[in-house]
Amino acid sequence: MKLHIKSNVSWVGKIDWELRKFHGDEYSTHRGSTYNSYLIEEEKVALIDTVWIPFAKEYVENLRKIIDLKKIDYVIANHAESDHSGALPELMSHIPDTPIYCTANGIKFLRGHYHQDWNFHAVKTGDRLSLGKKELIFIEAPMLHWPDTMFCYLTGDNILFSNDGFGQHYASEFMFNDLVDQAELMAECIKYYANILTPFSQSVDKKIKEVLSFNLPVDIICTSHGVIWRDNPVQIIEQYLKWANNYKENQITIVYDTMWNGTRVMAENIASGIKQSDQKVNVKLYNLSKSDKNDVITEIFKSKAILVGSPTINRGILTAVAALLEEIKGLRFQGKKAAAFGCYGWSGESVKVISENLESAGFKVVDAGIRSLWNPDTKSIETCVEYGKKVAGLFN
User: Fold this and answer.
1) pLDDT digits (tens, 9 = 90+) for 344-389
2) What is this structure's pTM?
3) 343 has which bridge partners?
4) Which of 164, 188, 257, 299 is catalytic?
5) Whether the bond into 145 is cis, omega within 30 of 0
6) Which of 210, 243, 276 delimits the end of a domain?
7) What's the CA gap between 179 and 174, in Å, rounded?
C-alpha cells in the first residue's frame, strides 16, 4: 500500500489491526497500531524507517511493487528498535551497499540487533543530506525514547519525521489526524505518552524547545506509529509541552486489589468521603486484578493524587499491586501526592509497604495511611469515609 502525503512523499508502512500487546506483553494496544515507513522520491530517493519483523517480507514485496529497490539511494534509520528497523535485514539483502544514515548510537544498536555491518553513516544534529532541490536535516533526540533516537526534517515540504515522538498506537485506514475520531486519537496519544515517554519528560521538554528554536516551519508531522499530523500539527506539540511539565488534572485515582472484598469496601468508602468533601474532584477506582494496567497508568498520569490499597498477605502485598508499584517507580511521575490503605488479619504490614514504595517512586505520601482489621464493620466504614474527607484536603 502506498499513501500520498505531500509532493513526492508517500507512506509505505503497515497497518496492524490485530495487535493487542506491544513491547512483549507490557503495553496494551486495544485499537491496534501502525508501523510507519516513508518514501521520498526526489532526484535522490530516501526511505525512512521500515516495519516490525513479522511483516518484513510482506513489506519488502510491497515496496518492490512501488519502486525498484535499487533506486533507493539512502535508508534513514531514525530508531533501532525492531518495530521500526525489523525489515532492514530483508531489505538490505536486496540492496546491501545502500548507505544507512543514523546516529552513532543507532549504529551500535542496529549491529546489536542484527549482527550486520551494513554501510552505516553516523549523523548528528544539523547534518544535512541532499536529495536534489530538497534536503533532509537530522536532529538527534536521545531518550525520546531510546539513546539512539533521532528526527529528520524535509526542507521544501516542511515535514518533520518524528519517529516515536507524537505517535500513538492506533490503527486506521484514514491515516491522517483530521479524518479520525478525535476522542479516540487523543485517548491513545495521552496513553502513549503516559506509559512510554513519562520518564523522559525533561528530555521531551528540552528537545521540543530546541527544535522550535530552529524556526523551521512544520506543516506535517510524520510519526512512526498511528496517524500523520497534517491538520494543525502544532496541537500535538503543545500537548507534549503540557504533558512534559508535571501534568495533572483535578483527579484522584484509587487503585487496589482485594482478597475477600474488605479492601474494596475501604476503597469505595474512601471515595465517598472524598466526594462529600470535594464535589469538583474527579474520583476513579480501579481493581488492579481486573483492569488493564496501561489504562490505569494513564489515569495515574492524569491525577494530582492517588490512593493505593492492598490487604496484607505474607507480610507483604498482593502481586497486582506490587507490579503496579514497580511500574510507576520506573515511570518517575513528578508532583503527585499519595496515600495507602488496606485490610489485615494479624500482622498488617501492607500499608507501610505501599507507602515506602510510593515514596521511592517519587510520590509525596501525605500521611501514614489507614488500616482496617478484618472485614470493615460499621465503625471502620465510617472511619474510611472520614479518612476520604481528610485526604481530599491533603491532596489539594
Assistant:
1) 999 999 999 999 999 999 999 999 999 999 999 999 999 999 999 9
2) 0.95
3) 372
4) 164
5) yes
6) 243
7) 6
Q: Confidence class of residue 1 from pLDDT cuts 50, 70 and 90?
A: confident
Q: Does residue 164 carry a catalytic annotation?
A: yes
For the beta carbon of residue 359, count every other beta carbon within 10 angstroms: 12
**Which residue range forms the structural domain that includes residue 109?**
3-243
Query: Catalytic: 83?
Result: yes
Within 13 A of 118's CA, how many CA atoms are on the CB side?
A: 32
Our answer to whether residue 169 is catalytic in this structure is: no
C-alpha span between 128 and 186 (Å, rounded)? 33
Over residues 52-87, the pLDDT tens digits come to 999 999 999 999 999 999 999 999 999 999 999 999
Could you confirm whether 121 is annotated as catalytic?
no
In a shared domain, residues 335 and 238 = no
Q: Is 81 a catalytic residue?
A: yes
Picking from 189, 222, 243, the residue at the C-terminal end of a domain is 243
Choosing from 42, 225, 247, 257, the catalytic residue is 225
Q: Residue 91: is it exposed, middle or buried by C-beta count within 10 angstroms (0-12/13-18/19+)?
A: buried
For residue range 111-123, what is the model confidence (pLDDT) as tens digits? Answer: 999 999 999 999 9
Q: In whole angstroms, give the CA distance from residue 194 to residue 206.
A: 18
Residue 180 is classified by DSSP as: S
* Cα 15 from Cα 13, distance rounded (Å): 7
Backbone dihedral angles phi then psi of residue 298, each to the nearest 5 degrees:
-60, -40
Catalytic residue check, 115? no
pLDDT bin (cut points 50, 70, 90) of residue 214 is confident
Tell me whether residue 23 is one of the annotated catalytic residues.
Answer: yes
Q: 206 and 277: one domain?
A: no
**Given 79, 90, 170, 188, which residue is catalytic?**
79
> Which amino acid is located at 79 in the chain?
H
- pLDDT at 145 (0 to 100): 83
Residue 344 β-bridge partners: 373
332-343 burial: b if 16+ Cβ within 10 Å, else e: ebeebbbbbbbb
Dihedral angle over CA of 237, 242, 246, 248, nearest 10? -130
**Are residues 336 and 217 part of one domain?**
no
Q: State the total domains in the chain.
A: 2
Buried b (16+ CB within 10 A) or exposed e, 279-314: eebebbbbbbeebebbebbbbbbbbbbbbbbbbbbe
